[in-house]
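DM between two lab members

TW: hey, do you still have the Holin-X, holin superfamily III entry open?
JB: yeah, one sec
JB: this one, 196 aa:
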Amino acid sequence: MKDFDHLMSVWQGQPKKEHLPVEEVLKQVKKGIRSITSRLYWAIVAMVATIIGAFILMFFMAFKSPATTIGILIILITMAMYLYMIVRHYHILNKHDLTQNPTDYLNSLKHYQKDRSRVIGWFYYAYILMLSAGLGLYFIEVLEYAPLYFKLLTYGFTLIWFLFTTFYIKPRMLKNEEEKLNLMIDRLERLQQQFD
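TW: and the structure you got?
JB:
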């Protein structure tokens, strides 16, 4: 009998699962998604403007060296690939309405998170390598008559910028977004468990 009383006291001593307020969770998730999609939207706008600028530069400037044109073409292809990726991620996040079917929405968020972490891992390094190659070819002609110190300064600054974005900005940005997505997914899963 003592064992039964002890078991009952342990059972009753368990912390009760906190029920999440549905409206508050939905509001927080919508706000988080709006933040991510807004950032993606402005990245799309900026990338389209940059691609147009690079396209104009490539076709309306008279370059002597084919290396310069190839460099700009590599940059254009790289930016187009990146644009495709962010447009695809934007559509994944905007595809479902949270209030219509929360299960589909939760699955699309998980799909987005998995796809983004998988693609960003390898794509970012390919993106940086292709951009570096394109800029290197572009700078050959552009810096042809520049003094040696200016060439070294330009190449050095470009290298430092790529290293800074690769090893400082990218990990922090991805970690921040990953934490936001994990929090939203966790809240939606807990909300879903409340109704199961």
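TW: got it. The radius of gyration is 25 Å. DSSP finds five helices and no strands in the chain.
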